Amino acid sequence: MFQHLWKSFVPLLVVLVAGLSVWLFQKQPDKGALVTPQTQDVPDSFMENFTTQVLDEQGRPQYQLRAIHMAHYADDDRSEFTQPQFTAFQPDGQRWTAAAETGRAENGTEQIFLDGAVTIQRYPDEASSANLQIRTRDVRVRPADDYAETDQAATIVQNEDTLKAVGLQVYFRKGQVQLLSQVRGVYAP
Questions:
Q1: Is the pTM of this model over 0.90?
Q2: Closest Cα to residue 170, out of 127, 119, 103, 106?
Q3: Which domains does the chain have, with CATH numbers?
Q4: Is the CB of residue 121 less than 8 Å from the CB of residue 140?
Q5: What was the pLDDT predicted at 10?
Q6: Minimal CA–CA distance to 46: which of 72, 64, 65, 82?
Q7: Residues 153, 164: Cα–Cα separation, whole Å
Q8: Which among 14, 62, 64, 144 could bridge 87 via Cys, Cβ 3.0 to 4.6 Å?
Q9: Which residues, other chains included, contact 96 with Cβ-Cβ below 8 Å and sequence gap of 6+?
Q10: For 73-99, what is the mean pLDDT?
């Protein structure tokens, strides 16, 4: 009789222990990548000549990020880029590009920082050359908002006209550039 009870009890005990183990495992917080002093500030992945593109609701390109080198760091979930180029596409065919010496992204591509010398250009359509060029430094881009900004000195050239300002905001979708302070201009006749 005891042996019969034991044979019935063992499978029940195994199921109970397995269920408890699964429950405890699910309660453990996700620790992400293991970061140790040896792996801190060491890339956990990298890519050469990469391009990533985000589409809008209609399946058209909204923006694209390219770089000749990208390294991802797990300890603070950042990516660093060599020669990044951000492109914002507009439904009317117009596009803006922003290229820099180096760059970085935090929290995926929620914010992209273009560091060092930055050139922003507007192209009226796919076949045309740039009709507006902005030269500045250290630009912060918020891709989801079609927006970029800097508090650095900037030079804007369109045809023969030149504007200089300190600080600017670029609204890619609206096609607008807002100059923040110390604006000076030279207009060709």
A1: no
A2: 119
A3: 45-186 (2.60.450.10)
A4: no
A5: 62
A6: 72
A7: 7
A8: 64
A9: 87, 88, 90, 120, 121, 122, 123, 170, 172
A10: 90
Helices (H), the chain: 2-27
Write down the pLDDT at residue 150: 97
Give me the amino acid identity at 84.
Answer: P
The pLDDT of residue 67 is 95
Please check the confidence at residue 40 and state whether its pLDDT lies above 80.
Answer: no
Show Cβ contacts of residue 165 under 8 Å, excluding neighbours closer than 6 positions.
153, 154, 156, 179, 180, 181, 182, 183, 184
Q: What pLDDT, on a 0 to 100 scale, did the predictor assign at position 18?
A: 62
> Is the per-residue pLDDT at 64 higher than 90?
yes
DSSP letter at 75? T
Decide the pairing of beta strands 61-73 and 45-55. Answer: antiparallel
Say what the pLDDT of residue 156 is.
Answer: 93
Q: CA 58 from chain center: how many Å?
A: 21
How many CA atoms lie within 13 Å of 137's alpha carbon, on the beta-carbon side? 5
Query: Are the beta carbons of 27 and 71 closer than 8 angstroms?
Result: no
Q: Report d(CA 100, CA 81) in Å as an integer.
A: 9
Q: Cα–Cα distance between 140 and 142 in angstroms, integer? A: 7
